[in-house]
TrEMBL record:
Its main location: membrane. It is a multi-pass membrane protein. It is found in: Cell membrane. The chain crosses the membrane at residues 21-43, 290-309, 334-361, 381-405, 426-451, 678-701, 722-744, 764-784. It comes from Mucilaginibacter roseus. This is ABC transporter permease.
């Protein structure tokens, strides 16, 4: 019987090749989109899932006076971890982490730059499940000047030698030596903690003893392990008292809050947290969920196509149902047969979908900067899941058509009574078409606003000139020769100027506590963003001054330039006073200097955030971490060659790295770009699949009305009249879909745009354009079948009865 069902199903699919092709192509595209997106979703959801302990990351909310708004940061004060463990029994353990980048290591003649290492407490491996290939978890990080290397790093430094017990040396400005006490398995990609080596944090204790004991600075990340069954909500409620206990002397406890993030949420649930330096491939979990939702919508649209086309063509199979029932077939047997057909069709679509997904993965990996793999044969669970999905899609999309087809009464069918799909069935099909295009229109509107918002952020004037500006990272060693390198480059015709700063614009800059002493007024203590800059930084980046003057060479760190936001904060008690009255007033930290200039507000951070208060100053002894070189137009290749040559001469052991500031800002908005591109692709697929369904229904409609069309043509109807007759019904459905989608899209995009400090407006014409576009797409889709029916010879249709 099953064999007979299979043969019958295959014959029916082959008999209706056009409609079968539409169903298979539509389903396969929907499945392929779902498979690829679900691979991405599963990858994102798997971050840090291999750790088994009850771990939370400790973070702060900082709201000191002077900041325009509170901010969340992924940093904490050094003594917090031990104090939490001492004070609260639910805190079982803690570890602290600090990132080091581009760290130079040497093993005799072999030199290596590791891109990222972590300085950690001895408890790090007791809390996290990073497996050791060699060494002891409990002792490997106990002693100062110890290091654990990953397998790849160990092989690069030692080859086939056993590295345990060997000594490697940091060859930067110091010559710190480390004993290799273990080898770790390479860190999996789905870990927010990425490193090539673990260095003992206790190595730095003697040099940074004051920082380790200070409750005033936030410079590392703390993780705590809670005892099984401990209530994080209960612990969270105790944090105000904890802060008051340890910060009461300074009185700063009221400016801080502490919060805990579960380890599994650190990667995807902390997009609103700044200074998050240790969070690999950080991505908004809401966007991940959005991708999954849209992929499911695309798949549902494909399933709707199948239901529509199957129920529309049900009358053609009425005699088959009548004959089978008259010879004893039961309704459940017929339903099982029709369900078997849909499952077979779904499995055929799955084969095509897997091919599509395999071909699309390289593009998706490039877009997402992930390494997703469709490893069906090495991952049986994935193969079973995808096959199960295809069978489920086949069952769900075929359930209603199967019940409908199997319900035909054999007496009526065999008497020749025409089985009509009925008004209710046509009404259902119309509702499904409206639902399809409503989803497609909604996604079109959303995509346009997402793209416009991203373009607005990328193209809006940030208040400084970043064109042809190249940044080169400096460390303690290369910064020592910055002045000489600046002098060497400045005399070349390819170079417009050279400057330096503590950080690159577009990054989350550091904050600092400062003092302001107004003329004949009390001292004010506040906190604000700061940036150490070279004297010519403002002029080279073309940052405008609204009052005062630039730094002088004799300033020696006692001159401060503040932005307009900070000027307004300092004058909030005297709002009518002009900003220029701040010039010459005492300001600064350690030893006070004076405000010499007020800069026009500029976006030193991404446009997700409002412009915060900030000040700039020049203390050359504190060092710079970024050198900026302004290149003259048309001289890019020449300038880069010159910089590389000078760099190699001065720093033969240091790799030359550079990045255009424009590229840096593209990286800042990388996640937004990814969301925009993925949503655009899924929207395109939704529209295409919806059009496939519309094409099928238009074809069927023209086929069923072929005699009516013949009669109308004989009576004088023109081709235009016939096309309009066949198209009008579907165009009404598309317009209805627009009317439903518009308010939903407006509400959703209004809420989404509220997440941006600098945002576009929701223009009405976008909705009109999308409506027109959807009508044009629908008209183009159905016009082929409509025109084909309209120009057919009426004699052929009227001759057959």
């Amino acid at each position: 019987m099953i064999k007979s069902y299979f043969k019958t199903a295959w014959r029916n699919l082959w008999k209706s090749k056009f409609f079968s092709a539409i169903n298979i192509i539509g389903l396969s595209i929907g499945m392929a989109a779902c498979i690829v997106i679900m691979l991405f979703v599963f990858y994102e959801k798997s971050f840090d899932s291999f750790h088994t302990k009850n771990i939370y990351r400790l973070s702060e909310v900082q709201a000191p006076p002077g900041m325009a708004a509170s901010q969340k940061v992924a940093l904490s004060m050094a003594p917090m971890g031990q104090s939490l463990k001492n004070d609260y029994p639910e805190v079982k353990n803690f570890t602290r982490v600090r990132k080091i980048e581009k760290y130079q290591l040497t093993n005799q003649s072999k030199k290596l730059f590791i891109q990222q290492g972590l300085m950690v407490d001895s408890t790090f491996l007791e809390m996290f499940n990073f497996p050791l290939v060699k060494g002891d978890i409990h002792t490997a990080l106990q002693k100062p000047n110890s290091v654990l290397l990953t397998q790849q790093t160990a092989e690069k430094l030692f080859g086939d030698e056993d590295p345990i017990g060997k000594t490697i040396t940091h060859y930067g400005t110091d010559t710190t030596s480390y004993a290799v006490t273990g080898v770790l398995a390479d860190v999996p990609q789905n870990s927010h903690l990425q490193f090539e080596g673990l260095f003992t944090l206790s190595t730095m204790y003697q040099r940074w003893q004051q920082r380790f004991n200070s409750w005033g600075g936030n410079w590392l990340t703390t993780y705590v392990e809670l005892t099984p069954g401990a209530s994080i909500a209960n612990l969270q409620s105790k944090m105000p008292a904890f802060l008051k206990k340890y910060l009461s002397e300074s009185g700063n406890w009221k400016y801080y809050e502490l919060f805990y993030t579960p380890l599994k949420d650190v990667h995807a649930g902390t997009t609103d947290v700044g200074l998050d330096h240790i969070n690999y491939q950080k991505f908004d979990g809401k966007s991940t969920n959005l991708f999954g939702l849209i992929a499911i919508v695309v798949l549902v649209i494909a399933c709707v196509n199948f239901m529509n086309l199957t129920t529309a063509r049900s009358a053609e199979r009425s005699k088959e149902v009548g004959i089978r029932k008259s010879i004893g077939a039961q309704r459940n047997q017929l339903a099982a047969q029709f369900l078997g057909e849909t499952v077979m069709l779904a499995l055929l679509a799955l084969v095509l979908a897997l091919i599509m997904a395999k071909l699309a993965l390289p593009f998706i990996n490039q877009l997402s900067q992930r390494n997703l793999e469709l490893s069906l044969f090495t991952n049986p669970a994935l193969l079973l899941s995808i096959t199960g999905l295809a069978i489920l899609v086949g069952l769900l999309s075929g359930l209603y058509p199967a019940l409908f087809l199997s319900s035909f009464q054999p007496v009526k069918v065999l008497k020749g009574v025409i089985i009509s799909t009925g008004q209710s069935k046509a009404g259902l099909r119309n509702a499904l078409v409206v639902g399809q295009f409503c989803s497609a229109v909604f996604l079109m509107i959303a995509t346009i606003f997402v793209v416009k918002q991203l373009r607005y952020m990328q193209q809006r004037d940030p208040g400084f000139n970043r064109a042809q500006m190249v940044t080169i990272p400096l460390d303690n060693k290369t910064d020592e020769k910055y002045d000489f390198l600046k002098q060497e480059l400045s005399g070349n015709t390819a170079i417009a100027g050279v400057t330096a700063a503590q950080d690159v614009l577009g990054s989350h800059l550091d904050q600092s506590g400062v003092q302001f002493v107004p003329n004949n007024g009390p001292r004010r203590d506040l906190a604000t963003t700061r940036l150490i800059v070279d004297n010519n930084f403002l002029s080279l980046y073309n940052i405008k001054l609204v009052a005062g003057k630039n730094f002088t060479t004799a300033g020696n760190g006692r001159e401060y330039i503040i932005n307009e936001a900070l000027a307004k904060e300092l004058l909030k008690d005297t709002p009518k006073a002009k900003m220029s009255t701040l010039l010459g007033q005492q300001f600064g930290f350690d030893s006070l200097g004076v405000i010499t200039g007020i800069a026009k507000d500029f976006n030193f951070n991404s446009m997700h955030h409002k412009i915060e208060t900030m000040f700039m100053f020049n203390v050359k002894e504190w060092g710079y971490s970024q050198m900026s070189v302004k290149i003259n137009p048309g001289k890019t290749a020449e300038a880069l060659t010159l910089i590389k040559t000078k760099w190699a001469k001065l720093f033969p052991d240091q790799p030359f790295e550079y990045q255009f500031v424009d590229e840096h800002f593209r990286e800042v908005y990388r996640a937004d770009t990814q969301v925009s591109q993925v949503v655009s692709i899924l929207t395109g697929l939704a529209i295409f699949i919806s059009c496939l369904g519309l094409l099928g229904l238009a074809s069927y409609s023209a086929e069923k009305r072929i005699k009516e069309i013949g009669v109308r043509k004989v009576l004088g109807a023109s081709v235009q009249n016939i096309v309009l007759l066949l198209s009008a019904h579907f165009l009404k459905l598309v317009l209805l879909a627009n009317l439903i989608a518009w308010p939903l899209a407006w509400y959703t995009m209004h809420n989404w745009l509220d997440n941006f400090a600098f945002r576009i407006n929701i223009e009405w014409y976008v909705f009109a354009v999308v409506a027109l576009l959807s009508v044009i797409i629908a008209l183009f889709t159905i016009s082929f079948q409509s025109i084909k029916a309209a120009i057919a010879n009426p004699i052929k249709s009227l001759r057959t009865e």
